Amino acid sequence: MPLDTPSLAQEARRQIEICNACRYCEGFCSVFPAMTRQKAFSDGDLTHLANLCHNCRGCYYSCQYTPPHEFDLNLPAALAELRQDSWERLVGPRWLSQAFHSSGGLIAAALVAALTLLIAVLSLREPGEGAGFYAFLPHEAMVALFAPAFLLPLVAVVLGLRRYWRESGAGPLRLRGVLAAFTQAARLRDLSGGQGQGCNFEKEERYSNARRWFHQAVMYGFLLCFASTGTATLLHYLLGMEAPYPPLSLPKLLGIPGGVLLVIGTIGLGWLKTRAERKMGAARVWGGEMGFIVLLGFVAATGLALYAATGTGWVAPLLAVHLAAVLSFFLLLPYTKMVHGFFRLTALIAEQTLQARKQG
Hints:
By secondary structure, this protein is mainly alpha-helical. It has helices spanning 6-22, 31-35, 43-52, 58-62, 75-91, 94-102, 104-125, 139-168, 175-187, 210-238, 250-275, 286-308, 315-332, 339-359. The protein has two domains: 6-87, no CATH class; 94-359, no CATH class.
């Protein structure tokens, strides 16, 4: 699939070719070793390199060719723009992603408000007969709302990843490469600046691991919350154990720490984003990225508030708001910064596959 914006590719190609000739930053992250495999870069190569980049910005502060040098290199920004373009192009439809990133906070707030009203009306028209949350909204209504809202956006992302894989030319999967990529992603190695000292995202020429730690809090918090929901689903359908669950049950032992980590991580990432220089990222999507961070943090915060409100009159309104926030998160997933996690992991797997193919 050709790039829709050739000017982005041309600028990224120009900068990458200069970097490939210099190679001073070869040990910084996964981008630079991958860059050395060839001297000419196809559109697929550029898309792959852009998705390997974690925008740590260490290469910018180490580069001798940044402004005011005539080469005018700003590789983090060039790759960020190309990366954003790849998500919009490969997942599609592009206009939905562009709409969210131009008015992310407003769209997320409006969608949460509308869905809160819908869920509140449903709970009044079809009051549940079960215990806990099901006393306010029947289980069948929750499934009818959330199953398509989860599965359809996920299908869109999977199709986008399939297009990316073909464009990168990675070829057949290798199990060893998949395991190595998951290990790398679990450690967020590329946010350590390649040497473990951290990156320069918010402190310019000073190193910091803060972005890595906050990213890990978000990543593991999200996985714990997802595991909590998955465990509750298995308990419900396989063992006939319906919610609400006691405080020491597996869903709550996973969900509460997960929610806390998500709140801490999103607050931290939002704070760092206000301190970082916009010129080294995709500046046009700054608002949408911040809107996504706020939405994800809001999902976690309302979930924790719902736990705390158990047995009080606040459960019904908080349940409507929390379910609306979760539903909004999944509906918007392919068009927000959330999609970067899927693409980065796929890029790491593709890179391991390409390396193995080169080594024979």
